[in-house]
Amino acid sequence: MPITMKSCSCQSTACSSHAEPAGVVQSQFNKPPGGNSLDISIKSFDCADCAQKLEQALTKIPGIVSVKVNFISESAHIIYDNGLVKPAEIITFIQKLGYQAMLVEANAAGSNHNHPKTVFSGDTLKIVIIGLMWGIMLGLELLELLPSAVILINIIIISFGGYPIAKRGIGNLRNRIIDTNLLMLIAITGAIAIGEWSEAATVVFLSGIGNYLQEYTLGKTRQSIRSLMELTPPYARVLRNGQELRLPVEDITIGEVILVKPGEMVPLDGRVQCGSSAVNQASITGESIPVDKQTGDDVYAGTMNMQGVLEVVVTKFAQDTTAAKIIKLIEQAQNKKATAELIVDKFARFYTPIVISLAICLVVVPTVVFQQSFVSWFYRALVLLVISCPCALVISTPVSIISAIGNASRQGILIKGGEYIEQLGKVENIAFDKTGTLTMGRLKVVRVECTGNLSEQQILNIAATVEKYSEHPIAQAIVTEEAATDLVPAVNFIALPGQGASADIDDETIYVGNKRLFCGLGHNLEQYETIWREIELNGETYVLVGTNNILYGIICLADVVNSSGKQVIAELKRYGIAPLMLTGDNEYAAKTVAKAVNIENYYSDLMPENKADIIARLRNQGKVVAMVGDGVNDAPALAEATVGIAMGATGSDTALETADVALMTNDLGKISYAVKLSRNTVSIIKQNIWIAVGLKVIFIIGTVIGVTNLWLAVFADVGASIIVTVNGMRLLAAKKI
Considering its fold, how many domains does the chain have in total? Predict the structure, then answer.
């Protein structure tokens, strides 16, 4: 089977996603434990129940280790033993069941481009033809004209429209699987058997219309998800030997320089070597405000260069970019089912055989025991089979889950599966790491204590003059401080390990460092006891600035508190969630940050394993606990929590791999958004289940008392599927939660 990938051209500075002829690439199957892996695109699903039954059928093939069939994405991920079964045999098996199947391959950047944008060309023509014939049949029947022609038209409709239903139903029956197609086939055949040809034809026509409408609504969901998975252009402008070449991203290696012009998407992760521009990172972070980039800044594949020309040194291969990892996570998330979905799936396996048994009882008991009309109760049994199709119930959960995952992804929130969406909606406690989470993880000058005859501005300037040669975080904070401008020249810079640094300014040696350094110079620091106590109480750090005999001042620095922290904590409390803070910093630093964001419960001086122990203790109390950290030193706590949330995952491989939820920015507001989205998702899933079950119950009661018919049953069954699909899709469309 052909395996294609999307190609795209970017010679215009205004675009980076124009289609080009697809190229053929060799399939590369991973070798997971237990066998090879295979991804297949599958078309012609009538409903979610069909996908579930196909999954059951595939598991019975000798050599197939595991199968995940996803109705929403129209795909199957299969692990198989190449010694027992071949990919071509699996494809043939699926096709014999009446489905279109094709091997698919993601390109190196991770985007799956095998799916067409529209799926209705052949189906539309078929529905139109059947609809015209059904309309003619209905008109003739109402006018009581040409009864023979009416029967002939009914036969054509049933044969033309019912063949796919019969093929799939009988194919699954051969594999001892009872599915929706078999229920419909029995209903159509039964209607013919009792002479209700028009009823049988109407069932076929309405079933086709329903499947078409359901496919249309689900197609919107699928396309929205796929648009998230087409982040990066497949070509890049590479500067080689003084020439600008346009090459596939797969052919570009780390260390090469690529050129990104205004209006083009960045094709690969890299670091700006030359140029400056504003870059829209919404596709990665969910933030629509462009970020200024200049020499030394990182840029990410899939982001849009807005203004200037950038020369970028490639830092990651195409398959390892942040965008590629995001795409992979979205794909994997679609196969991780929520608890509600697993329960519904398990129920659906027994549901259809039970329905058939009830239909048999509905015929046998009234006719044999109570001597009532066989034809009347047989017809009601057929109606029961149609109305009891589990399509709406089976799709009620996955369409909501996938829509929520798509919504979250657009906001820069990667949720790795339905189970985590469910759990986020149930969270009772959220534990926050301090550094890099509630704070920005970088020091900032908060004040300057003047102890000599220099002003704050002068103290900052001479400190920055010395520290500009140092790479220490404190030095960088002072140098980048906005007030530190108009630096004077310095010579004879000397790093003093564990103490600070010195340099000569205007023939005078200036020292910048800690207490140990200045005590060694002979300074009496006891007179500044009040300042030391205030620094300690505020959880700040400091540097002293002076000469051999004069202390000019003390620069106080602190980690910058995340600007969104206080608001998010307040929102979480309104949701009934209790926040707490876990940090390895000292009591004073912890207290300062906790007070700034209004967290009452905090723990300080913790090792990574201590954080995990606190999370475990809460879980042992029956709490649903989320942990928010940076995904590196917080890994034990993230793993221990019910839901692990990694902050600022852009560029952090560990965060993307270890957490259940990864945020692509340091915006804490994404956490409250994710919680509210999860709660809305759980609510909509419950609504969908009640809609699906409620409509079934109402029509089953109507069937038993004889007030429904076959065409109304089809309409109700299809209507329920469309209602739950559209209701679930609201999550995808919502821009604000």
Answer: 2
Domain that holds residue 295: 235-320
Tell me what pLDDT residue 390 has: 81
Task: Output the 3-class SS for 660-715.
Answer: CEEECCCCCHHHHHHHHHHHHHHHHHHHHHHHHHHHHHHHHHHHHCCCCCHHHHHH
User: How many CB atoms are located within 10 Å of the residue 195 CB?
Assistant: 10
Q: How far apart are CA 663 and CA 630, in angstroms?
A: 10
For the chain, which ranges sit under pLDDT 50? 1-31, 106-121, 482-484, 651
**CA distance linking residue 662 with residue 646, whole number of Å:** 5
Residue 373: both structure tokens together = 């009309």
Domain-located, residue 538: yes
Output the pLDDT for position 230: 66
AA identity, residue 384? L
CATH of the domain at 526: 3.40.1110.10
Length in residues, the chain: 737
CB distance 381 to 364 below 8 Å: no
Q: What is the pTM of this model?
A: 0.73
- CA–CA dist 270, 299 (Å, integer): 6
Question: Which tokens belong to 81?
Answer: 């033993």
Residue tagged 């096709």 (tokens): 95
Question: What b/e string do you get for 127-165 counting C-beta neighbours within 10 Å, with b at 16 or more?
Answer: beebeebbeebbeebeeeeeeeebeebbeebbeebbebb
Active-site positions read 433
Q: How confident is the model at residue 221, as a pLDDT?
A: 66
pLDDT at 650: 52
Q: What is the pLDDT of residue 31?
A: 46
Asked whether the CA dihedral 162, 164, 168, 173 is positive or negative, the reply is positive
Q: Judging by DSSP bridges, how do beta strands 277-280 and 429-433 pair with one another?
A: unpaired
Instruction: Report how far apart, in Å, the C-alpha atoms of 466 and of each of 249, 510, 617 are.
Output: 44, 8, 48
Here the CATH number for the domain that contains residue 263 is 2.70.150.10
Distance CA 228, CA 328 (A): 11
